[in-house]
Write a structure and sequence with these properties.
- This protein has 304 residues and is of the alpha+beta class.
- The protein has one domain.
- The chain is 24% helix and 24% strand.
- The chain has 9 helices and 11 strands.
- Strands 1, 2, 3, 4, 5, 6, 7, 8, 9, 10 and 11 form an 11-stranded antiparallel β-sheet that branches.
- A hairpin with a 6-residue loop joins strand 3 and strand 4.
C-alpha cells in the first residue's frame, strides 16, 4: 500500500477484510443481452489492464470463489458468457485474492438484475497504480465505457471487501463508519444501487459518468459545462459525459476540512438528477440493518 494509505488496510488475525482501492463503477439500464457488446468491451479492456493479477472467479451459480485455471487472461476471457438463457441474477467476479479469505487488490465485477432491468460493471485496482498516473486512469475510464450505453457511473477512491468471508459484515459496518470522516471514498454496494439507477444518479465522485438520457434533462454538454468551475473538466463520450472533479482523487478528510470544492460543484450541478430511490445500506449494525438515516445524508453530501 502507498505510504500514507496504510490506515485504510483493515484486518483481523492477519485476514484483510477491507482494502482501499481506486475503482470505476458503471451502471446500465436494461438487460445483459441488450448491452452484450459494451459489456464484453469493458471486460476485455479491464482484463488487458489487470488480467495478469487475477487468480479467482465466482459466478451466480457458485457459493464460493474458485481458482481460475492457469490464472491466465486468455482463460479468464471465456468466463464472460452471455448465452441464450441469462440468469435473473447475473454475477461474475474475477479477483486477485480469494474473497472468501481476503479483500482483493484487483477486481473485475459484473452484476445484473433482470427483474430490475439494471446492472453494473466495476474495475478496481491498487491505489499505487493510479496515483501519479491519473491521466491514464481517466483515459482508461473513457475506453472502458466507449461502447457501453451507460446510465451513470463513478470513479475514485473506494473499498474492496472480503465479500464472501465471515468478515463481510464487519467490512460493511467498518466502511460505513469510515464514511462519516472520509467523504471522498465511495462506499459501494452494486446490488443495492441497481435499485436506484433507473430513477437517477447515486451521488458524485472524482469521476462521475452521466448518460445521455440524464444529460438531456440538464440541457446538454454545453449547458452542464457552463455551470461548472474551471477546476472541473467535462469529457464528452459516445453515451454521455465523464466529469472530472480536479486532477487527482481526494480522500475528503472532514476532520481536516480537506478542500472538496470541485466535488461540491459537480454535486450541486447534478443534484436534480440524484435518485430518490436508493435503499439504505450504510448500516451501523449489519444484523439490525439500521443506518440512523445516514445513507441518505451521505448520498446528499455534495448536493449543496
Amino acid at each position: 500500500m502507498t505510504t500514507g494509505y496504510d490506515q485504510f488496510l483493515h484486518e483481523v488475525d492477519g485476514a484483510v477484510y477491507l482494502r482501499l482501492c481506486v475503482a470505476l463503477t458503471v451502471y446500465f439500464e436494461g438487460t445483459v443481452e441488450q448491452h452484450q457488446s459494451g459489456i464484453e468491451h469493458f471486460y476485455s479492456t479491464a482484463l488487458e489492464q489487470v488480467g495478469d493479477h487475477l487468480r479467482f472467479y465466482q459466478t451466480d451459480s457458485m457459493k464460493k470463489p474458485k481458482p481460475a485455471k492457469g490464472g491466465a487472461a486468455n482463460g479468464l476471457r471465456a468466463l464472460l458468457h452471455v448465452g441464450a438463457k441469462v440468469p435473473v441474477f447475473y454475477k461474475l467476479f474475477v479477483e486477485s485474492e480469494d474473497a472468501a479469505r481476503e479483500a482483493p487488490r484487483y477486481s473485475i465485477a459484473l452484476q445484473a438484475n433482470r427483474m430490475l432491468q439494471a446492472g453494473a460493471l466495476r474495475l478496481a485496482m491498487p491505489v499505487e497504480e493510479v496515483l501519479g498516473r491519473e491521466r491514464h486512469f481517466v483515459a482508461l475510464a473513457a475506453e472502458l465505457t466507449r461502447t457501453l450505453t451507460f446510465s451513470s457511473g463513478y470513479g475514485g477512491f473506494s473499498f474492496n471487501l472480503a465479500g464472501e468471508s465471515d468478515l463481510q459484515s464487519t467490512g460493511k459496518v467498518r466502511s460505513a463508519a469510515l464514511s462519516h470522516r472520509w467523504y471522498g471514498i465511495d462506499i459501494e454496494s452494486l446490488s443495492q444501487t441497481v435499485y436506484a439507477i433507473r430513477q437517477g444518479l447515486k451521488s458524485v465522485g472524482w469521476l462521475t459518468l452521466v448518460g445521455n438520457r440524464w444529460l438531456a434533462t440538464l440541457g446538454g454538454v454545453d449547458a452542464l459545462a457552463a455551470v461548472l468551475p474551471a477546476a472541473v473538466t467535462v469529457h464528452p463520450l459516445p453515451s454521455g459525459v465523464l466529469i472530472q472533479a480536479g486532477p487527482h482523487p481526494r480522500l475528503g478528510d472532514v476532520n481536516r476540512t480537506e478542500d472538496l470544492g470541485p466535488y461540491r460543484a459537480v454535486g450541486r450541478a447534478l443534484a436534480p438528477l440524484r435518485s430518490p430511490a436508493h435503499p439504505r445500506y450504510l448500516f451501523t449494525d449489519a444484523l439490525e440493518n439500521e443506518d440512523d438515516g445516514w445513507t441518505q445524508q451521505w448520498l446528499a453530501r455534495f448536493d449543496a
